Amino acid sequence: MAKERGAHLVAIVNRRQSDITHVAHGVFYTSDGRDIEMSVASTKAFYSQIIAGFILALNFAQIIKVLKDGDIARELTELHYAPDRMKRVIASKERIGESAWQLVKKKKYWAVVGSGPNKVAADEIRIKLSELCYKTISSDIIEDKKHIDLSSEPLVLVCAAGSPGSVVEDIVKDVAIFKAHAASVIVIADEDETRFADVADAVLEVPRSSFPVSVILNTLAGHLWGYYAASSIDDDAAFFREFRSTMSRRVNDLDGTNGSFFETIADPGLHHTIQAFASDFQARRNRGYFSSMSIEVATDIALLLKYAVGKLPLEDFWEEFKGKRPSSSPFDMLDICLGHACDELSRPIDAIRHQAKTVTVGTSRKGEMAKGVLFDFLKTLDCSLENLTTKGGFTARRLQRAITGIRGYTLYRVDGLDSDGKPLDLSTIQIEERSGVSRRMKSRVEKMRTLVGTKKTSVSEGDIYAGLGKTDKAPIIVVPLLGAGHIIRRILLVHVDFKKDLTAAEKREVIGNRFNRIKDLVMEYNLPWDDARLDAFSIETLLGEGVDVIAGRILKSHRVRDRK
Predict the structure, then answer these.
(1) Contact 438, 492 (CB under 8 A)
(2) Pick from 2-6, 310-314, 365-369, 417-421: least confident
(3) What are the DSSP calls for 488-515, one per residue?
(4) What's the pTM value of the predicted model, to 2 decimals?
């Protein structure tokens, strides 16, 4: 929209060939670490974009001569030392972890606050805490927080490092107010700042720095704190997981002797195991732990532990848990409640696929399908956006600009994938449904059910294939569809009609990243590039043929013209 209104666009972006690079007039690549994230607010991208944005601002300042070269040099020197200062913060991670370990177990409600530039740090820390700890967390300006109801006695993380001296004095007073409302307060401050020692529960020291490095150091300390906060909560989950596993094994062993649950309740070994856990569970509750667990689950577990060792009559259990219990046995209900506790407290902080693709982007829900010829067709098959992979969604958006109609489809089911949804040598495929021109066509799957070829590649890469069928040369697209567990369960082969009159510019938009790969291969032979070279190819060829083949044809055509 900005471009349409005449704006000149500069994109600061991490991933090469990101969609925005085809739109912007200029690109400032940060290229920080792995270059594969798509549509995910990664931590390293936040840090690197702050630096990139500041460098860009200094460049503008030099161009319009509002800063002297000496001042710009000093600012750049400050940026140069940022990695060393970040390493010093990381070196103190054990101390940061200690400050998080006990407090987060006791506080249900959290907030992150910062003033001035540090409000940005607070916002970013809030995002990381939310995705690591699965909590709804507020982010406020420090001076505004005291006007907000503090009766919930929250845990407050304060970003104060890099603040001017007069501002720090006000922050100290605000922290004292937080403490007066029984809040637990963690302050991120400059390493030589002593004024928070008497008013905060813990002080996380970072190297003294100026803007914008101070914002990065506040954020880094908060991110590390969030990691250990999540680890602490997950430690509570491990407490329940271990007992649940031990109890289940013992109960199953006793069930194997064909005894009733009455005998199970009376078993001395199980009795001892449950009582030891119950004692530890109550001691942890008395210390204020399990704040992230629902009161209902905690209360049910405490009660069921008494039923499981016979301290309370089973008649009361049957009545009290009517409509909730799966059987007459309190052990079955206790197992369910322990499972709920594990679910509420588990924080899979290292499960990158789950964290980045589900939690960061948002709670998984059935999404409304986008508009367009391809998306409209998918909707008729009762597919939602959640049935498309991230790659597939972006590809579909580009492809449908080149599709004029859909003539039929075949829906396949794939089986025998590994636990991550990747194809194996013995993975199979079979037809579930056909329509349109597909009904008149023979399919290799009818004779050989092994998953091979383009369909296997599509499942493996999770992306849409578009081009010509390998055997009949019919124009097709192959769409991998996600099912239960966000794993590819089906493949949709759609017979389409591609537009014949696309311009070179339109073809460039449709083929996306393939354009850069074709262009780079051609230019390796010192042949100047012109988008008009795309006019010699149909869109299905540009989409489905190997980029090396297309580049080879361009080079061959150029040599033929030279000879003439």
Answers:
(1) no
(2) 365-369
(3) EEEEEEEEEEE-S---HHHHHHHHTHHH
(4) 0.63
